[in-house]
Design goal:
The protein is α+β, with helices and mostly antiparallel strands and about 250 residues long. It has 2 domains: about 1-20 and about 220-245; about 30-195, Cupredoxins -  blue copper proteins (Immunoglobulin-like). Helices cover about 25% and strands about 25% of the residues. It contains 5 helices and 10 strands, in the order H-H-H-H-E-E-E-E-E-E-E-E-E-E-H. The protein has helices at about 1-20, 25-30, 35-40, 45-55, 220-245, and strands at about 60-65, 70-75, 90-95, 115, 120-130, 135-140, 150-155, 160-165, 175-180, 190-195. It has a 7-stranded mixed beta sheet with strand order 1-2-7-6-9-10-4, with no helix packed on it. The protein has a 3-stranded mixed beta sheet with strand order 3-5-8, with no helix packed on it. Strand 1 and strand 2 (about 70-75) form a beta hairpin. Helix 1 runs antiparallel to helix 5. Bound molecules: copper (II) ion. Copper (II) ion binds near residues 135 and 184.
């Protein structure tokens, strides 16, 4: 019987490690933005609007010069669900090794890791690169009917500054912002764009969320709670039976 007591204590310990070691994560939802493409197909007016807007291609697309590049810039094409540009929001983001110091093991960093914007707002980012190497400020998961590959992207050459604008979607959602150069995200350049009330923190954002990826196919938080309670009850039963025998 004593063996059972030890066994249940070990189980209890393992279950609590599972719960406190892992926090539920909404990462996967960030990539689900594409679904809006499918659900919104009812309003056909949008398509004609887009078609006519597409002819005025002047400020859309790619800009490259010696300071860097801006890809998929968008000043005036409204995302679905937006009737107008809600407001203009501007950020100045500094990229550089000196911003990495707060996070252990990080090499690269940004002056901010969270960018909160209103739905349908026009967001202008001035990206100041203080390092010698290139850096990027890249948003992923945006609606693909407006942003090819769902991406808006500013790249600044070493020591240069680059400014770009895009219009935030109408839904409350978190989007990954990162630098796509090899190992720059892993070494600290991982941030998030929060549109409206957002959809939960993206994992591994410097100074904001845990650097821990939890796959969707693993048992959820509720399951882990149930597990710890059942193990606890089992443990107490064994203890109680031991006492009763003595
Ligand atoms: Cu970088």
């Amino acid at each position: 019987m004593r063996v059972f007591t030890v066994f249940s204590a070990v189980l209890l310990l393992m279950a609590s490690m599972m719960i406190f070691g892992q926090t539920p994560d909404h990462t996967d939802h960030t990539d689900h933005t594409d679904h809006t493409d499918h659900t919104d197909h009812t309003d056909h007016t949008d398509h004609t609007d887009l078609a006519s807007d597409d002819s005025s291609h002047s400020d859309h697309g790619m800009i490259i010069d010696e300071d860097g590049a801006v890809m998929n810039q968008n000043f005036n094409q409204l995302p679905r669900g937006c009737t107008q540009i809600s407001r203009d929001q501007e950020f100045t983001v500094y990229a550089g090794s000196r911003y990495a110091s707060a996070e252990p093991g990080m090499i690269f960093g940004m002056s901010e890791y969270e960018f909160a914007v209103e739905p349908c707002s026009r967001v202008t980012v001035t990206f100041v690169n203080e390092d010698d190497v290139r850096h990027q400020w890249m948003v992923h998961g945006l609606p693909k009917y407006l942003y090819p590959a769902g991406m808006f992207h500013i790249e600044a050459s070493g020591g240069r500054t680059k400014t770009g604008s895009f219009i935030a979607p109408s839904e409350n959602q978190n989007y990954l912002v990162h630098c796509d150069l090899a190992q720059h995200m892993e070494k600290g350049m991982r941030a998030q764009l929060v549109v409206g009330s957002g959809s939960g923190d993206i994992w591994g954002v410097s100074g904001i969320s845990d650097n821990f990826y939890r796959a969707d196919y693993l048992p959820g938080f509720t399951f882990q709670l149930l597990l710890i309670f059942s193990v606890a009850i089992f443990g107490f039963l064994v203890l109680f039976m031991n006492r009763a025998r003595d």
